[in-house]
Amino acid sequence: MEIDLENFKNIEPQADALIKLDAIFRAFPDMLFFMDADGRILSYEAGKTSSLYRLPEQFLGQPMQALFPPDVAEKLSRAFQDALQTGKVVPVEYRLQVPEGECWFEARLIKTAESRVIAIVRDVTDRVAAANQIQSQLTRLSALHTIDATISSSFDLKVILSVILRQITGQLGVDAADILVLHQRTHMLEYAAGHGFTTPVSEHAAVMIGQGYAGTAALQRRTISIPALDSQPAGSLFSPGLKQEKFASYYAVPLIAKGQVNGVLEIYHRSILKPAEDWFEFLATLAGHTALAIDSASLFQDLQRTNFELGLAYDTAIDSWSRALVLSGRETDEHIQRVTHWTVDLGSACRVSEKDQNDLRRGALLHDIGKLMIPETILNKPGALTEVEWEITKRHPRHAYEILAPIRQLAAALDIPRFHHERWDGSGYPDGLRGNQIPIAARIFGVVDVYAALISARPYRPAWTIQAAQEYIREQSGTLFDPLIAKAFLQTNPHDN
Fold it and tell me: Rounded CA gap, 365 and 367, in Å?
């Protein structure tokens, strides 16, 4: 048999290429499905088979829609038909219960030249979790705002405690809660307010310090956690009236302000609670606000301290939102920290007051919070955006306003997230403001943001040199940028800081 040596030489490089391609697919974080025009799966590649809803061998030859629960199958079927008919990339998100637990996926379907469809499926559980965490923190921050507003506007402790208890039961997802206030002369914990009980208030008996769970929490100045009351000795918990409530989980939190125990917050639930760590953190925050409300002989005297603590809570939440942007791949931590630092420095150079500089800092940290509502595939697209994709991207300042506007304490920090893409000559978005119509905070940040973007590499272009970026700011002074602010920025030389 005669061997064609020339062809033989080509076999080894081809095999090597296939081996490398296979290694790439196995390391690829996404899953790829190749389907015919009828939706049957011809082949697939999945480096992480544990994320699959079915066993791999069950996919081949089956319609993709037949392999998933009805609600998911309907979404995928519509997306498949859209991709087949339009030839465009069709994205769809869905949730599945897989062996690793509940996961969220994003599938992007596109038609090939052979009238087949490729589906690229990515696990976006971390992104969805980050967005949900943001939403949860916003809700809790709104609850703190409600408490703060009540403390600021009322002298009636019962009214304040009633509002606090409604927020506690709603935000913590529990059936009932009450507040016992320590009577300093008798050293008894006396019922002050409750929410969610079916028994009469008069049957909630006073508790002596050291007695029962509430008394122990006050005496030992620590939270008492009883996640399963069935395991506790009969008759060891509450007054006779409370036994009728049939509670299953219980927590007692001492209310401590200025080093003094002022009472106990009790949490009740009629089924077993399995709270996460942030649940306990928020419970401690709520307990702290309750303790301050009780401790205040004059609500006006204590308002400054309460506002300070709320400010810390807002700053903590803002930092968490910034981290969520980083975790979701929509922004880098380096960019956020850089523009925040430079914005505050430029604000100081422009003689912005210290109070307003704090709002500059908050606004800079939150400047791209609206991008949480923009698909990651658009934000990280390596090529030029289509007209539709660009219009979607330009919505993020309005999304930022919709997210942050309900929080009254952040009102002064909203100018940057909402207006940082407005330009001096009116060519910006979303409102086409010009000149001094643009808030000064947004004018300051606008210079910093553009400069930071220019000196950073992007998927669609390399980074500019510092000299080229500075020259651009100089050239666009009076066109895109406030000339006085642009001049101040160039004089501050941010790379020296």
Answer: 6
Q: For residue 422, report the phi and psi dihedrals to the nearest 5 degrees.
A: -75, 150
pLDDT in tens, 181-198: 888 778 889 888 889 888
pLDDT-derived band of residue 2, with 50, 70 and 90 as boundaries? very low
Most confident stretch, 19-28, 44-53, 130-139, 373-382: 373-382
* Separation between Cα atoms, residue 424 and residue 434, nearest integer Å: 5
For residues 242 and 235, what is the distance between their CA atoms, to the nearest angstrom?
Answer: 11
| String of DSSP letters for 209-253 | TTSHHHHHHHHHTS-EEES-GGGSPTTSSS-HHHHTT---EEEEE
Report pTM: 0.45
Q: Residue 197 in 3-state DSSP?
A: coil
Structural domains of the chain ordered from first start: 12-123 (3.30.450.20), 154-295 (3.30.450.40), 323-496 (1.10.3210.10)
In the structure, how many helices (H) and strands (E) does the chain have?
Answer: 17, 11
CA distance 335 to 231: 52
**Cis omega (within 30 of 0) for bond into 375:** no
Dig out the tokens for 146 from the structure.
């409600």
Helix locations, 232-375, DSSP H = 240-243, 277-295, 299-327, 333-349, 354-365
The amino acid at 389: E
